[in-house]
Specification:
2-enoyl-CoA Hydratase, Chain A, domain 1; 275 residues; alpha/beta; binds coenzyme A; six-stranded mixed β-sheet
Protein backbone atom coordinates (compact mmCIF):
# COMPACT_ATOMS: atom_id res chain seq x y z
CA UNK A 1 0.00 0.00 0.00
CA UNK A 2 1.28 3.48 -0.88
CA UNK A 3 2.31 5.36 2.24
CA UNK A 4 0.68 8.76 2.79
CA UNK A 5 2.94 11.72 2.08
CA UNK A 6 3.74 14.29 4.78
CA UNK A 7 2.45 17.85 4.58
CA UNK A 8 4.35 21.08 5.18
CA UNK A 9 3.51 24.78 5.29
CA UNK A 10 5.65 25.80 2.29
CA UNK A 11 6.46 22.54 0.51
CA UNK A 12 4.21 20.03 -1.23
CA UNK A 13 4.96 16.36 -1.92
CA UNK A 14 3.38 14.50 -4.85
CA UNK A 15 4.00 10.97 -6.05
CA UNK A 16 3.90 9.46 -9.52
CA UNK A 17 4.86 5.79 -9.10
CA UNK A 18 8.51 5.60 -7.98
CA UNK A 19 9.01 9.32 -8.65
CA UNK A 20 8.44 11.88 -5.90
CA UNK A 21 7.97 15.56 -6.62
CA UNK A 22 9.25 17.87 -3.88
CA UNK A 23 7.58 21.16 -4.71
CA UNK A 24 8.42 24.65 -3.45
CA UNK A 25 4.93 25.78 -2.57
CA UNK A 26 4.49 29.53 -2.19
CA UNK A 27 3.01 30.17 -5.63
CA UNK A 28 1.54 33.55 -4.65
CA UNK A 29 5.11 34.72 -3.92
CA UNK A 30 6.56 32.98 -6.99
CA UNK A 31 8.07 30.44 -4.55
CA UNK A 32 10.44 32.98 -3.03
CA UNK A 33 12.31 31.16 -0.28
CA UNK A 34 11.27 32.15 3.24
CA UNK A 35 13.00 30.78 6.36
CA UNK A 36 10.05 28.39 6.82
CA UNK A 37 10.39 27.10 3.25
CA UNK A 38 14.06 26.29 3.92
CA UNK A 39 13.16 24.37 7.10
CA UNK A 40 10.39 22.52 5.26
CA UNK A 41 12.67 21.60 2.36
CA UNK A 42 15.20 20.11 4.80
CA UNK A 43 12.48 17.91 6.30
CA UNK A 44 10.89 17.00 2.96
CA UNK A 45 14.19 15.93 1.40
CA UNK A 46 15.06 13.85 4.48
CA UNK A 47 11.67 12.18 4.27
CA UNK A 48 12.00 11.36 0.53
CA UNK A 49 15.55 10.05 1.06
CA UNK A 50 14.22 7.46 3.52
CA UNK A 51 10.92 6.72 1.80
CA UNK A 52 11.06 3.18 0.39
CA UNK A 53 8.79 3.95 -2.56
CA UNK A 54 10.79 6.96 -3.77
CA UNK A 55 13.49 6.08 -6.30
CA UNK A 56 13.88 9.47 -7.95
CA UNK A 57 13.20 13.00 -6.64
CA UNK A 58 12.09 15.88 -8.86
CA UNK A 59 12.51 19.33 -7.33
CA UNK A 60 10.21 21.95 -8.83
CA UNK A 61 7.99 24.92 -7.98
CA UNK A 62 4.20 25.27 -7.72
CA UNK A 63 2.09 27.58 -9.87
CA UNK A 64 4.20 27.60 -13.02
CA UNK A 65 7.38 29.08 -11.54
CA UNK A 66 10.49 27.46 -10.10
CA UNK A 67 11.65 30.07 -7.58
CA UNK A 68 11.99 33.88 -7.35
CA UNK A 69 15.09 33.58 -5.12
CA UNK A 70 15.38 34.36 -1.44
CA UNK A 71 12.34 36.07 0.00
CA UNK A 72 13.55 39.66 0.25
CA UNK A 73 10.98 40.46 2.92
CA UNK A 74 11.08 37.36 5.15
CA UNK A 75 14.61 36.01 4.60
CA UNK A 76 16.55 39.28 4.41
CA UNK A 77 14.54 42.07 6.04
CA UNK A 78 12.68 39.74 8.39
CA UNK A 79 15.85 38.45 10.06
CA UNK A 80 17.81 41.71 10.01
CA UNK A 81 17.64 42.46 13.71
CA UNK A 82 17.75 38.86 14.89
CA UNK A 83 21.16 37.20 14.57
CA UNK A 84 19.88 33.82 15.73
CA UNK A 85 16.97 33.77 13.28
CA UNK A 86 19.32 34.85 10.47
CA UNK A 87 21.80 32.08 11.33
CA UNK A 88 19.02 29.48 11.52
CA UNK A 89 17.62 30.52 8.14
CA UNK A 90 21.06 30.65 6.54
CA UNK A 91 21.99 27.20 7.83
CA UNK A 92 18.74 25.64 6.62
CA UNK A 93 19.05 27.42 3.25
CA UNK A 94 22.51 26.00 2.68
CA UNK A 95 21.64 22.61 4.10
CA UNK A 96 18.95 21.66 1.59
CA UNK A 97 20.06 23.67 -1.43
CA UNK A 98 23.58 22.31 -1.40
CA UNK A 99 24.51 19.79 1.30
CA UNK A 100 21.47 17.57 1.05
CA UNK A 101 20.89 17.78 -2.71
CA UNK A 102 24.52 17.42 -3.75
CA UNK A 103 24.97 14.34 -1.53
CA UNK A 104 21.51 12.92 -2.06
CA UNK A 105 21.30 9.10 -1.96
CA UNK A 106 18.79 9.00 -4.84
CA UNK A 107 18.92 10.67 -8.24
CA UNK A 108 17.53 14.22 -8.31
CA UNK A 109 16.18 16.27 -11.20
CA UNK A 110 15.43 20.01 -11.13
CA UNK A 111 12.38 20.70 -13.32
CA UNK A 112 12.41 24.42 -14.09
CA UNK A 113 9.57 26.50 -15.45
CA UNK A 114 8.68 30.18 -15.22
CA UNK A 115 11.04 32.27 -13.13
CA UNK A 116 14.29 31.08 -11.57
CA UNK A 117 16.21 33.86 -9.84
CA UNK A 118 19.20 34.28 -7.55
CA UNK A 119 19.22 31.75 -4.73
CA UNK A 120 16.98 29.50 -6.84
CA UNK A 121 20.04 28.68 -8.95
CA UNK A 122 21.71 26.68 -6.18
CA UNK A 123 19.25 23.75 -6.06
CA UNK A 124 19.14 23.63 -9.87
CA UNK A 125 22.92 23.19 -9.86
CA UNK A 126 23.02 20.82 -6.88
CA UNK A 127 20.51 18.43 -8.45
CA UNK A 128 22.11 15.69 -10.53
CA UNK A 129 20.11 16.70 -13.60
CA UNK A 130 18.14 19.75 -14.73
CA UNK A 131 15.50 20.10 -17.42
CA UNK A 132 13.90 23.42 -18.22
CA UNK A 133 11.07 24.82 -20.32
CA UNK A 134 12.32 26.79 -23.34
CA UNK A 135 10.43 29.85 -22.13
CA UNK A 136 11.69 29.78 -18.51
CA UNK A 137 13.48 32.92 -17.31
CA UNK A 138 16.76 32.66 -15.41
CA UNK A 139 18.43 35.63 -13.72
CA UNK A 140 21.30 36.18 -11.33
CA UNK A 141 19.60 39.34 -10.26
CA UNK A 142 21.50 39.93 -6.98
CA UNK A 143 23.57 42.72 -8.49
CA UNK A 144 20.31 44.60 -9.18
CA UNK A 145 19.64 44.60 -5.43
CA UNK A 146 23.11 45.78 -4.53
CA UNK A 147 24.13 42.39 -3.18
CA UNK A 148 26.38 39.57 -4.41
CA UNK A 149 25.27 36.07 -5.44
CA UNK A 150 26.07 34.82 -1.94
CA UNK A 151 24.96 31.70 -0.07
CA UNK A 152 27.22 29.75 -2.44
CA UNK A 153 25.48 30.92 -5.64
CA UNK A 154 28.60 32.51 -7.17
CA UNK A 155 30.59 29.36 -6.47
CA UNK A 156 27.82 27.04 -7.65
CA UNK A 157 27.42 28.76 -11.03
CA UNK A 158 31.11 28.29 -11.75
CA UNK A 159 30.60 24.54 -11.28
CA UNK A 160 28.28 24.28 -14.27
CA UNK A 161 28.71 27.43 -16.38
CA UNK A 162 31.83 28.25 -18.25
CA UNK A 163 33.81 31.08 -16.68
CA UNK A 164 32.77 33.71 -19.24
CA UNK A 165 29.05 32.97 -18.82
CA UNK A 166 29.31 32.79 -15.01
CA UNK A 167 31.02 36.18 -14.89
CA UNK A 168 28.76 37.75 -17.51
CA UNK A 169 25.42 36.77 -16.02
CA UNK A 170 26.53 37.35 -12.40
CA UNK A 171 27.88 40.84 -12.99
CA UNK A 172 25.31 42.12 -15.51
CA UNK A 173 22.27 40.52 -13.87
CA UNK A 174 21.02 40.00 -17.44
CA UNK A 175 18.32 37.37 -17.82
CA UNK A 176 18.55 34.30 -20.05
CA UNK A 177 15.88 31.94 -21.31
CA UNK A 178 15.47 28.22 -20.77
CA UNK A 179 16.46 27.67 -24.40
CA UNK A 180 19.67 29.65 -23.79
CA UNK A 181 20.28 27.70 -20.56
CA UNK A 182 20.05 24.51 -22.63
CA UNK A 183 22.40 25.85 -25.31
CA UNK A 184 25.05 26.83 -22.74
CA UNK A 185 24.57 23.50 -20.91
CA UNK A 186 23.58 25.15 -17.68
CA UNK A 187 20.87 22.45 -17.76
CA UNK A 188 20.85 19.05 -19.46
CA UNK A 189 18.16 20.12 -21.86
CA UNK A 190 15.45 22.59 -22.64
CA UNK A 191 12.09 21.51 -24.03
CA UNK A 192 8.81 23.20 -25.02
CA UNK A 193 6.85 24.13 -21.90
CA UNK A 194 4.00 21.74 -22.70
CA UNK A 195 6.47 18.82 -22.85
CA UNK A 196 8.37 19.68 -19.66
CA UNK A 197 6.69 17.23 -17.31
CA UNK A 198 6.61 14.43 -19.88
CA UNK A 199 10.33 14.82 -20.72
CA UNK A 200 11.30 15.06 -17.06
CA UNK A 201 9.28 11.96 -16.24
CA UNK A 202 10.94 10.11 -19.13
CA UNK A 203 14.35 10.72 -17.54
CA UNK A 204 13.02 9.98 -14.04
CA UNK A 205 11.48 6.66 -15.09
CA UNK A 206 14.66 5.67 -16.90
CA UNK A 207 16.65 6.35 -13.71
CA UNK A 208 14.04 4.53 -11.60
CA UNK A 209 14.38 1.43 -13.80
CA UNK A 210 18.06 0.95 -12.97
CA UNK A 211 19.78 -0.58 -9.97
CA UNK A 212 19.49 2.06 -7.18
CA UNK A 213 22.91 1.12 -5.83
CA UNK A 214 24.59 1.41 -9.24
CA UNK A 215 22.92 4.77 -9.87
CA UNK A 216 23.90 6.08 -6.44
CA UNK A 217 27.51 4.92 -6.64
CA UNK A 218 27.88 6.23 -10.18
CA UNK A 219 26.62 9.70 -9.36
CA UNK A 220 28.78 9.83 -6.24
CA UNK A 221 31.77 8.76 -8.29
CA UNK A 222 31.27 11.33 -11.05
CA UNK A 223 30.76 14.10 -8.51
CA UNK A 224 33.73 13.17 -6.35
CA UNK A 225 36.40 12.64 -8.99
CA UNK A 226 36.01 16.21 -10.26
CA UNK A 227 38.22 17.49 -7.47
CA UNK A 228 40.76 14.65 -7.47
CA UNK A 229 44.04 14.06 -9.21
CA UNK A 230 44.17 11.19 -11.71
CA UNK A 231 45.96 8.92 -9.23
CA UNK A 232 43.52 9.70 -6.43
CA UNK A 233 40.60 9.13 -8.79
CA UNK A 234 41.94 5.76 -9.92
CA UNK A 235 42.38 4.55 -6.36
CA UNK A 236 39.02 5.96 -5.25
CA UNK A 237 37.16 4.46 -8.22
CA UNK A 238 38.71 1.04 -7.62
CA UNK A 239 37.60 1.17 -3.98
CA UNK A 240 34.18 2.48 -4.95
CA UNK A 241 33.72 -0.36 -7.46
CA UNK A 242 34.66 -2.92 -4.82
CA UNK A 243 32.31 -1.28 -2.32
CA UNK A 244 29.41 -1.41 -4.80
CA UNK A 245 30.01 -5.10 -5.41
CA UNK A 246 29.49 -5.79 -1.73
CA UNK A 247 26.83 -3.18 -1.04
CA UNK A 248 24.37 -3.80 -3.91
CA UNK A 249 21.53 -5.88 -2.42
CA UNK A 250 20.17 -6.53 -5.92
CA UNK A 251 23.52 -7.90 -7.12
CA UNK A 252 23.03 -5.96 -10.37
CA UNK A 253 26.56 -6.63 -11.63
CA UNK A 254 26.36 -10.40 -11.21
CA UNK A 255 22.86 -10.46 -12.72
CA UNK A 256 23.97 -8.44 -15.74
CA UNK A 257 27.07 -10.60 -16.27
CA UNK A 258 25.00 -13.80 -16.14
CA UNK A 259 22.43 -12.35 -18.54
CA UNK A 260 25.09 -11.17 -20.98
CA UNK A 261 27.65 -14.00 -20.79
CA UNK A 262 25.55 -17.08 -20.02
CA UNK A 263 21.94 -16.44 -20.90
CA UNK A 264 22.69 -14.02 -23.78
CA UNK A 265 19.52 -12.11 -22.87
CA UNK A 266 21.00 -8.67 -22.12
CA UNK A 267 22.73 -6.35 -24.61
CA UNK A 268 22.96 -2.81 -23.23
CA UNK A 269 24.69 -1.68 -26.42
CA UNK A 270 21.50 -2.50 -28.35
CA UNK A 271 19.28 -0.49 -26.02
CA UNK A 272 17.74 -3.08 -23.64
CA UNK A 273 19.50 -1.50 -20.71
CA UNK A 274 16.73 -1.07 -18.13
CA UNK A 275 17.74 -2.95 -14.97
N1 LIG B 1 11.09 38.08 -2.34
C1 LIG B 1 9.94 38.43 -1.75
N2 LIG B 1 8.77 38.51 -2.39
C2 LIG B 1 8.78 38.24 -3.70
C3 LIG B 1 9.94 37.87 -4.39
C4 LIG B 1 11.15 37.79 -3.64
N3 LIG B 1 12.31 37.39 -4.17
N4 LIG B 1 9.63 37.66 -5.68
C5 LIG B 1 8.32 37.88 -5.78
N5 LIG B 1 7.80 38.24 -4.59
C6 LIG B 1 6.42 38.57 -4.26
C7 LIG B 1 6.02 39.95 -4.73
O1 LIG B 1 6.44 40.94 -3.80
C8 LIG B 1 4.52 39.82 -4.80
O2 LIG B 1 4.01 39.91 -3.49
P1 LIG B 1 2.60 40.70 -3.22
O3 LIG B 1 1.56 39.93 -4.00
O4 LIG B 1 2.44 40.62 -1.76
O5 LIG B 1 2.80 42.07 -3.76
C9 LIG B 1 4.33 38.38 -5.26
O6 LIG B 1 5.54 37.71 -4.95
C10 LIG B 1 4.13 38.24 -6.75
O7 LIG B 1 5.17 38.93 -7.39
P2 LIG B 1 4.92 39.94 -8.60
O8 LIG B 1 6.14 40.77 -8.73
O9 LIG B 1 3.63 40.65 -8.43
O10 LIG B 1 4.77 38.89 -9.80
P3 LIG B 1 5.21 39.02 -11.31
O11 LIG B 1 4.77 37.73 -11.93
O12 LIG B 1 4.75 40.28 -11.91
O13 LIG B 1 6.82 39.06 -11.28
C11 LIG B 1 9.03 38.31 -10.66
C12 LIG B 1 7.53 37.95 -10.80
C13 LIG B 1 9.68 37.07 -10.07
C14 LIG B 1 9.62 38.64 -12.03
C15 LIG B 1 9.18 39.53 -9.72
O14 LIG B 1 8.40 39.35 -8.56
C16 LIG B 1 10.61 39.79 -9.32
O15 LIG B 1 11.36 40.40 -10.04
N6 LIG B 1 10.99 39.28 -8.11
C17 LIG B 1 12.34 39.45 -7.61
C18 LIG B 1 13.22 38.40 -8.18
C19 LIG B 1 14.64 38.56 -7.69
O16 LIG B 1 15.34 39.47 -8.07
N7 LIG B 1 15.06 37.60 -6.84
C20 LIG B 1 16.41 37.55 -6.33
C21 LIG B 1 16.45 38.05 -4.96
S1 LIG B 1 18.13 38.16 -4.44
Amino acid sequence: MTEAVPTYECVKIEREGPVTFVILNRPEKRNAMSPQLHLDMCEALDWAAEDDETRVVIVTGAGGNFCAGQDLKLYFRGTEGDAKARARARTAAHEWRWNKLSMYPKPTIAMVHGYCFGGGFTPVIACDFAITADDATFGLSEVNWGIIPGGLVAWAVTQVMNYRDAMYYSVTGEKFSGAEAGAMKFVNKSVPADKLREETMKLANNLASKSPAAVRYTKEAVRSVRNMSKDQALDYLNCKSDALKFMDPEKGREKAMTQFLDEKSFKPGLGNFAR
